[in-house]
Inverse folding.
């Protein structure tokens, strides 16, 4: 019941975000053939870029000439950044909103445990993130058809995409935990968005500076870095473990806290 | 003796800035309409929220239907209808959606009752919640609470926002529920409506239970505010009259808090030089201050 309700309630936002990400992916991939034709001048332009910038965006290892390289430099950023914003906003609202708008009194008076509330709400977040990623995959596969001739390794692409799903869920779970704790919706949404941008910023710093390279263990953007996954065709198990631990940990902590807290409106 | 529907033992809740409640003990029998009165902020809502496990008791415990309010909250809520003092529902829903949603949690199938109740209360179920006035929201709350025919109704200041006509309809609905054997826990700060509906009342003040008394007794000790208007109120001598709890003069008004026999009052003032008389119910505050402090 609650799951269905939450799903319906967030459906409009899911559709809008899906259309945006699909449009971006299709648009970018449709101009790729043009770009590939001018690969020579493109490479020249890229090599003229400052070393730090190239490192920051993984352009030192990826080439715009291949479809996946182009995907990794241009589109992957959108997938990770927009997707994380979507996931974080959704998750930060889903629990706190009931308390902010005082509708939680209705829900709590129903024969429904707090654990059920949290489980169904997390299930709604999880499903939304999953659907959003299915849209990314489908739009990308359709988009790759524009790049006829270009050789796209789907196994590498799916590896990259699995990293993207995991990182979206990571942000969602952290935002979800905050959502179970904080009382006012506005604070949750802004802190979750701040978290996404700070993590993105960390990933850039980790790429540029050797002193701060330890930040790569902190930022999920670094876990799902296209340059590494595409060039090495490998998704570091270390990162998978970190993300899995964060996701499970945050959701369980949310459960634990929410079933014990006093809920006053 | 049968088991009480609600059994509260030494229930205490202290938190943050709010006063909370301390050592509340009372029980409600099956089929009873039980009033819970006290001024705003006395701890009525805190008690109710603790019973519904929105908040956790600091100490003490309580059972509803013989089940622990914390450990068996879900099973308890299956049989409870709760009407909060302020109604907040999902703005994006229509009234009918909200009521169906509510019924679905209780696995209640007789959805025709939605229309019966809505019709009685003159509530348009096709409207969106966000467009409803305060009074209409309250009606949605009432239907929501009564809909699944719960064994226990918990009503927190239920009449606020309802016009007198609707209040009558509402009390009729409650009487019908009561005749089916429903137990009603009725919180209010309005003495007269509690007197009208309830068998027994618990009086709470500043988080502590002052008294549990039958309405019959409460009526026996009934107090009235009597105001006499006279050009020279000092000339009115009521020293022979027993039952005057408080007497004060302000300008042309002589105010009495009277707890004695009404006939004796009328007889005593019959020959007094007054122009006008006003007899009204004292506020709950006045009762607390002048009656319970004396006891």
């Amino acid at each position: 019941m609650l799951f269905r309700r939450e799903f319906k309630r967030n459906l409009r936002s899911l559709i809008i975000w899906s259309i945006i990400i699909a449009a971006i992916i299709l648009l970018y991939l449709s101009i790729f053939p043009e770009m590939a034709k001018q690969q020579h001048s493109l490479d020249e332009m890229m090599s003229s870029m400052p070393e730090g910038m190239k490192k920051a965006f993984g352009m030192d290892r990826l080439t715009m000439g291949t479809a996946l390289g182009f995907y990794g430099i241009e589109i992957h950023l959108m997938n990770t950044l927009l997707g994380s914003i979507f996931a974080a906003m959704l998750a930060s609202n889903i629990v706190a909103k009931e308390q902010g708008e005082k509708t939680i009194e209705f829900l709590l008076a129903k024969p429904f445990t707090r654990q059920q509330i949290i489980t169904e709400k997390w299930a709604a977040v999880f499903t939304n993130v999953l659907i959003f990623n299915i849209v990314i995959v489908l739009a990308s596969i359709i988009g790759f058809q524009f790049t006829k001739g270009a050789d796209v390794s789907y196994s590498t692409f799916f590896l990259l995409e699995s990293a993207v799903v995991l990182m979206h869920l990571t942000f969602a779970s952290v935002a979800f935990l905050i959502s179970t704790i904080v009382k006012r919706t506005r604070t949750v949404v802004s802190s979750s968005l701040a978290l996404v941008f700070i993590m993105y910023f960390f990933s850039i710093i980790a790429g540029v500076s050797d002193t701060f390279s330890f930040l790569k263990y902190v930022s999920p953007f670094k876990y799902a870095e296209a340059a590494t996954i595409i060039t090495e065709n490998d998704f570091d198990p270390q990162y998978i473990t970190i993300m899995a631990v964060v996701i499970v940990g945050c959701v369980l902590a949310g459960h634990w806290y929410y079933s014990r807290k006093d809920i006053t409106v | 003796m049968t088991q009480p529907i609600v059994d509260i033992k030494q229930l205490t809740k202290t938190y943050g800035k709010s006063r909370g409640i301390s050592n509340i003990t009372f029980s409600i029998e099956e089929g009873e309409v039980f009033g819970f009165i006290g001024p705003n902020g006395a701890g009525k809502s805190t008690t109710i929220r603790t019973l519904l496990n929105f908040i956790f008791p600091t100490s003490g415990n309580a059972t509803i239907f013989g089940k622990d309010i914390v450990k068996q909250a879900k099973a308890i809520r299956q049989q409870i209808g709760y009407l909060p003092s302020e109604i907040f529902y999902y703005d994006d829903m229509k009234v009918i959606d909200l009521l169906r949603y509510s019924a679905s949690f209780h696995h209640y199938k007789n959805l025709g009752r939605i229309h019966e109740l809505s019709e009685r209360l003159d509530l348009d179920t096709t409207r969106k919640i966000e467009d409803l006035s305060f009074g209409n929201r309250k009606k949605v709350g009432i239907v929501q609470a009564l809909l699944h025919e719960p064994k226990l109704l918990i009503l927190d200041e239920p009449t606020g926002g309802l016009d007198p006509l609707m209040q009558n309809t509402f009390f009729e609905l409650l009487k019908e529920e009561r005749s089916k054997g429903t137990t009603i826990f009725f919180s209010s700060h309005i003495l007269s409506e509690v007197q009208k509906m309830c068998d027994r009342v618990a009086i709470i003040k500043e988080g502590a239970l002052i008294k549990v008394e039958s309405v019959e007794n409460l009526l026996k000790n009934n107090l009235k505010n009597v105001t006499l208007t006279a050009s020279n109120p000092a000339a009115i001598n009521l020293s022979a009259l027993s039952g005057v709890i408080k007497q004060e003069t302000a300008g042309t008004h002589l105010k009495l808090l009277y707890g004695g026999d009404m006939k004796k009052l009328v007889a005593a003032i019959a020959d007094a030089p007054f122009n006008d008389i006003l007899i009204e119910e004292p506020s709950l505050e006045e009762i607390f201050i002048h009656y319970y402090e004396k006891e």
Notes: Chain A touches chain B at residues 1, 5, 9, 101-103, 105-106, 108-113, 260, 262-265 (CB under 8 Å).
